[in-house]
Amino acid sequence: MKKIYSLFAAVVLTASINAQTTVFNATFDDVDGTGGSDGNWASSVAGTALASYTTGGTWDLTRAYKGGGCLKMGTASVLGVLKTPNITLTGSGTLTFRAAAWNGNNENTTLKVSVTGGTLSQATVTLVKASYTTYTINVTNATGNVVIAFEGNAAANGRFFIDDIKVTTATMAVVDATKEKTGLVKNTIVSNELIFGTSAKISVYNTAGQIVKTAEVSDNSRLDVSSLAKGAYVVTGLVNGQAVSQKIIKK
């Protein structure tokens, strides 16, 4: 038991506090055309070709047109492809963007998304005609220089609008739970169950800062942790509007 308590006192765990660091952000606010973000989605909007774009780096454009603070990609017969500049990202991150399909009767609503220098959690999204949707895709295995490509699904009627492309990474914060005397968890050395001393929405983090359990608990309620591997964890919760944390050892 003494050995366990020594480990308990020595370990300082890292746990995510859900903060985000933006590593790439393209708003296209300097694109002075018509269509898309101004609420127009068809007819003669976005008629001016955009030969090059260098805000935030050098973009690779195939059949790009100026929208109203956004880009329109493709024509009725030629595929549009948009590739970002190099994005500095190592490990994992989150891609978000807004996109919409051209408002045509036969318009294809599938948008392909791909990456070089990493892996995406999905390769396509389904667009809505004449209305923006915000899409979120996870990026993993990023090698440092990442390029993300957006491409219509077909040359014929694969036109799309795109805006607000952003890549973020999670910011990790160190939680020294030995300083917290919260009474959130009654039994800090456990085999199968955590017993709670107050009502809270809780998350359990491992030493890599990953959430391994979440729950909404109350005084004297129990949470099964028998499936967790042996080791040290941090339980965080929101109690009366205050963020608290407590270290536990799973035997």
UniProtKB/TrEMBL annotation:
Q: Which Pfam families match?
A: Por_Secre_tail
Per the UniProt entry, the signal peptide is: 1-21
Q: What InterPro entries does UniProt report for this protein, alphabetically?
A: Secre_tail
Secretion system C-terminal sorting domain ranges (all copies): 196-249
Does the keyword field hold Lipid metabolism?
no
Q: Which UniProt keywords apply?
A: Signal
**Membrane keyword on record:** no
State the NCBIfam families in the record.
Answer: Por_Secre_tail
User: What's the name of the protein?
Assistant: Por secretion system C-terminal sorting domain-containing protein
The species this protein belongs to is: Epilithonimonas hungarica
